[in-house]
Design a protein that fits this description.
321 residues; alpha+beta; Jelly Rolls; eight-stranded mixed sheet; four-stranded antiparallel sheet; 30% helix; 20% strand; globular
Length: 321
């Protein structure tokens, strides 16, 4: 996969540039998202030391005994620990893969919502492991940075699509999000991969934009395009990887592709390889009606969907058992 297909976008011309500069960047983003649905984003202002502190504290949790971690067991889309075998992301696209070879710490929105039913389902309090007190503060700081970055990206995407910066951002007055710290240990922890088994099976994400801080490795991220099939995603340690999710693809009438991707299993020639990803899943305010923009901007007219009914269905679809 070449950097032409997944370009690196510097956000500083968007946040600091004049109208012409911002318009040129928006055109570049539009063209890029028509192919793979992925961007590398620099100029985001997220401190690499903050990301390192989260990884250090999370790894301390993942190395705890299984019975301790089990106290924090959660369902997919909840708050807590997703243990081995909890998810099979390939299920979301109808692929019956074995369960994904990972563990996750999962957090989400916890600022109360005015509707008690919505509040109970989407805004429950986060659960912070008592054994790792160093985890909470950097995660909360990181999530605040991600929420601000998501809104900036959606303003840019509104201009790239055409209607303007408020087109998506107006649905972000009280948005939900998901946040997974995904741990991909080696075969000494997960065992030898079964046929068709991945660290994360082939899928597209479900929400608006996903913002990923990842580590590179032989058993790392791959991206799919119609032209080239599966290929290793380009990597820049200073960049965050951003991809379009299903809701945003539907919103654009498939003008922009929901980025199909997978994470390879531990490699045969490096079975002890260990990676960790920080994955922020951007969403929108519950009750948002997602309607495809009409042609000629949109290419497919999807039936309108309630944003969070759609998200709940997708989260349920990848739950094993």
């Amino acid at each position: 996969m070449s950097d032409v297909r997944i370009p690196t976008i510097d956000l500083r011309p968007w946040t600091e540039g004049d109208a012409a500069t911002r318009a040129a960047l928006a055109r570049t983003v539009d063209e890029a998202l028509k192919t793979a649905g992925f961007l590398l984003v620099t100029g985001h202002g997220v401190d690499p030391g903050l990301r390192a502190r989260i990884r250090s504290a999370a790894r301390e949790f993942f190395l705890l005994p299984a019975d301790v971690k089990q106290r924090y067991a959660a369902k997919v889309g909840g708050r807590g620990w997703l243990g081995p075998g909890a998810e099979a992301n390939g299920y979301a696209e109808g692929t019956q893969t074995p369960p994904d070879l990972k563990e996750s710490l999962t957090f989400a929105t916890d600022e109360p919502f005015e509707d008690p039913v919505v509040n109970a389902e989407w805004y429950a309090p986060n659960v912070w492991p008592a054994e790792v007190p160093a985890l909470r503060a950097p995660c909360e700081e990181y999530l605040a940075r991600m929420a601000a970055l998501e809104k900036e990206l959606l303003a840019l995407l509104g201009c790239a699509l055409g209607p303007g910066p408020g087109f998506f951002a107006r649905h972000m007055d009280h948005p939900t999000y998901g946040f997974n710290i995904n741990w991909y240990p080696g075969t000494e922890v997960v065992g030898r991969p079964r046929p068709g088994q991945f660290r994360i099976g082939p899928h597209t994400d479900f929400g608006t934009v996903t913002i990923l801080d990842r580590q590179t490795g032989k058993g790392g991220l791959q991206v799919h395009t119609d032209e080239g099939g599966w290929a290793d995603a380009p990597y820049d340690p200073s960049a965050l990887t951003v991809n379009i999710g299903d809701l945003l693809a539907r919103w654009t009438g498939d003008r922009w592709r929901s980025g199909r991707h997978r994470v390879l299993p531990p490699p045969v020639d490096a079975p002890a390889e260990e990676l960790m990803s920080l994955v922020y899943f951007g969403e929108c305010t519950p009750g948002t009606l997602v309607e495809s923009v009409p042609a000629p901007v949109g290419r497919v007219a999807y039936p309108p969907v309630d944003s969070h009914a759609y998200l709940r269905g997708k989260l349920d679809s990848i739950t094993v058992g």
